[in-house]
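Researcher: Quick sanity check before group meeting.
Model: Go ahead. Protein one:
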Amino acid sequence: MDKFIVNIIHRPEMVPEYAEKVTGHGKAEDIGRKALLTESLDIFKTQQRLAHENGLKTTIQMTYASLFNEEAVALAKADHEKYGDEIALSLLGLPCKEFREKYKTKDFCIWMFSMEDKKSIVDDIFAKFHDIFGFYPESTGSYYLDADLINYIKETYPSVKCAVATCWEEGPKAYHTCNNSWYTLFDGGPWAPWIPSKQNTHAPAANEAEDSGIVAIPHLSRDLIACYDGNGSNFGTHPQNVLRGMIYDSQTWEYPYMYNLIDQYRSLEKYNNGYAYNMMFVGPAWMNKMGRWEAPYELLEKSYSDGCAYYGKLKKEGKLVDMTMAEFADHYRKKKSYTEPECALWRDILYGSDKQLFWYCDPYMRACVNMDQGGAIVDLRPYAAKLEWPVGIGTKHVQDASYPFLIQEKYRAGYFTHYAGEGTVRSAKLSYQGEEVDLCLCRTKAHFSQEGNTRILTLDPVEIEFYDLTMKLQTRIYFEEGSSEIKIERAILEMSNPEAQVELNEYMVACYGTTEYPEDMTGIILKCEGPQEKSISYEYKCREEQLAGAEAVSAVIGAIETKVSMRPSDPEAVGYVKEGYAFSPMFTLGYTKTVSDKEVFATWLKLEKAN
């Protein structure tokens, strides 16, 4: 069994976002204020001390502002010599007098600048770094790095091998909980380290030709249920996330959730061939002397101290290895192949429910299976399209860097909808003598296994009751590595009337988008494929087509260069496609089949790049 890996990353952010207003006490803005710079550096020193006291090495991501501060530079050099800390370069922390005077802007998110400015800023910072340290960094990062920028950095500064490249589910949910003022929109990426493709940072590379040349790590390790259901910024292994989420005892200042969250990341080795990873990435603004998140400085410091102590304890017990970012990139390249997926069977550790989600990510898709909805797929991102999505000023997407979804229950309703229309979900319905039951209503639990290159979710059987028939059904979901397909198998285990015949309807309701708001569906092509092909060009007219013996049912969504299709195990099954309408701008693909006792029926959902 491999040891649990942790990256601890600090940045001497001389002018932390948020902190100027707090230390300024109503004074006119002055990002060169000495009190601000001194406090920020003091907090960085505290963070470094707490890590080192617990036997942990760090990656020091120097910010642009810190490169102009002799003390910050001297500290980085000293800790590199004494503790083996890596000196890296962050593209966060741009704001400082020197930057503002040169670029005449208050923008600080590197991915939002024009490509011309991105290159200029990167060249400035890398040159300054080289002047001071005599070498170029091996690691860099930001909240998000778009593919064009990663490609430029790797081509121009080939020493870079690792980067913080996205923040998991930092999209509309986080935006709304920041009073609609935090324009960092990048849902749809991996939650654990990956090799980004040259085409799109979120979509992992499928082979060497697509490899951008770096290993990417997420900005934070987050709770894969609480973060998905709510604001991710409250639920992460960054200790002050836990305080911001108010997930601690206000009397004792204890936070068992933080340790449970770290331990759940440790447990992911069960699903990833013995490999498990976690990271802690903290800027000094989080430990402001004025306090943050209704917590005093003393609690902020205690939480960080306790977090470091827990990692230190695991290291002393031989259960953890601390790596710098560059060391981790080398390790990851040896440990993982391009097509090897990242898997997480995640359970609720915060709210006391029995909820389980299964997350799957590989170069062709990111998928989420919800056991509270009978094993329905509730989030699906078509990485197979490797969608090129330039971001920043001068592009179509100035702020929105999210990877588009086909299914997303939070932004497109999922199974539980209003009074009309449908939400996006991949599930099944059973009909008998005029009654209908959707498996989304049948809560269950999942068990993970692996056979060769296939990851299998075996769900506990569910019992379905009609007026005069009860039946037991079991679902298995297969993710075959490198196939870009998900196989879903339904087995009828028993029926109270062995002679009964029930209609099984395997369906997928989908659309595309990155936010809650609908996109233009015009021109999506829906098809029942086979010798008597039938098709619909989407015009919001509520039309349907079906074909007995359809070889596949498919949709081509030109706007995101994606083809999604389903095919059945029984060639006699009836395939169908449905066009939505303006109030329910979805499309539906599906198969119906009559099933009997002890019968097994399977369908495959496939994702491809549309030509």
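Researcher: Fine. The other one?
Model: Protein two, sequence then structure:
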Amino acid sequence: MNVSGIVARGLAGALLPAGFALAADPPASTDWPLLGNSPEMQHHSDLDQINTDTVARLGLVWSVDLPTLDGPVGNPLIKDGRIFQSGSQSKVFAHDLRTGELLWTHEPLKSARSGSIDEALGMRINRGVALYDDLAVVATADCRLVAVDQATGVKRWDAEACDAAQGYSITGAPRVGAGKVFIGNACQDSGSNRGHVNAFDAATGKHLWRFYTVPGDPDQPPENELYLRAMATWGEGWYERTKGCGSVWDAMVYDEQTNQLIIGTGGPAPLNPTMRGKGAGDELFTNALVALDADTGDYRWHFSQVPRDGWNWEPAVGLMLATLPVFGEDRRVVVSVPKNGFVYLFDAASGEFLSGKNYVPITWAKGLDEFGRPIFDPSARYWEQGDGVTRLVPTGGLGSHGWEALALNPQRHLLYIPVMNIPTAMSRNDGGAGFSFDFYYGDPSDPSWRRFGEVVAWDLITQSEVWRRSSGLPVNGGLLHTGGGLVFQGSAEGYLTAYDAASGEPRWSAPAGGAIRAAPSTVMVEGRQFVIVPAGRPTGSMTSTGLGHYSSTPRARSQPRLLAFALDGEAETPAWAEPTRIPKPTVARMDPELAGAGALVYESYGCMICHGKYAAGLGGTAPDLRVKLPASLEYLQAVLDGALKSTGMPAYPVDERTAETLLAYQVNAAWDAYEAQQHGNDMEETPTPEESR
């Protein structure tokens, strides 16, 4: 017996951080075949070759440009030496894991079919793919699921999941389980249709079942008794005002142990509650977790998180499954981190509320009652305020956490949360949706109302903070936790950082040459651990383009690319983006009053979602409107009437006067940016006095 070897290993173990184990011989190669690396979507890997001791040696092995104009935001999936991702136009592509070589691309949506705003947004945004057997499955902006061969990219089946002509689109990643593919859709909070989720046979694309998240026309017989129950919660006259929505636009997780699909639903629309049914209750099944039988789609249980929501703090994001020691016994639980600033635990089989606690400061509620229902703070109800205004934390509409990936340390039961801190002023108005957001609101007298990002480590058993680490800009990437005691996150500024999972101390950081919104994946490649992450202009996210100040710096808006890091990598950092140069406008400034009216139209029509604040686009498929002005008013009118709808620019038929105000706004925005540039400033990046705090 080698006693000295045993002693040496014992001493080494005593010197290791808590929760860190000595690695056995590393596996030659591994895969990351599911979103989050497991059906539970925990974004955890046991791999520990890259750890707190070795991470200082981490370097870039290779980087390649991606065949998409808008930066991917989905978690890269990896199987059999191939990396699978999706991008704009619902394109799906595969790269060689060892070298980054592009193997194939498949483009299922070459032009828009309906010309709707929903489809237009979906053409830019796609949050990932699913892998099943030898197939890669992507959802398209025009409401289809498309399965292609993993080796060749050749289409194997195609199935319709919703009707784009009725205002639906799909931006989320499919989920797989029990031989099925599950997919929801988005209604862009229009209130024009019923949200639903579908199941398809993963091998053939055959449609198996559909579950609607809201009831249908009260004058028609309901599908079953469940919708009679739901209808009673919508109040008087609701159907004349809204068809509900309740979209399943992102959050879905399949539980193998209970054979359930658990979904998080979007909020009701319009967002202002005074514009929906009178005397309404929970408005089922919006703003809820809903558990469905995975084989039949039958309802099993639900939990409403924000009844009568007027802020869009939906649980349509942030779902995870885990087995945790709750109340002295191991329980299969659903972890829900919606937009509203709370972490919730529910029993996966029954839906029983187990615990909940806010992990960020909140102004809309004073806590949760014993049943997990919010104790509302009346001051947050802008629709009931005398001046119609309230200031909010978390961020109105966006929340403190969006679709960005959570991560879990399953041994220590620590949840890692990517946090957005963007204090918001929300106002009641009488037009459009009945409200407006001011994401650039600030209070100079109160430093707590500043904007920043965070990673928060949260103990799920005690519902308490372990550590939190602040970053500069608030809109950053998803997380990865590893057995090496590290938490990885990419930033808006364009860096990949590894934090000590136990303390939150930064252990390593390296430039990626572009902003990062996706979560990294990690695998072994012939005995060497790789960390894979996409970077580049973050235009594959509405949050990123609408809040360009907060989601990227000008140099981080580079061509989308894929990067691979490993120990002792020595490749050079890919180039940062060149600054956007604004040419001198060829037409004179226009009337300021006319431009001011155009600014209101620009905001109310949602132009900022694609083209950015101040008309300062981030690049990609939606152009910077300051760089190339419309050739004439007639040309702009034609574009607004739908001349470019096949390319993803939706139709906005307006009268000539409205088109003229938009032209004036663009012209003057171009002059503002040009003149700021001449003085050595970037108009889009120069904060207002409130923004600098």
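Researcher: One line on it for the slide.
Model: Residues 1-23, 685-693 have pLDDT under 50 and may be disordered.
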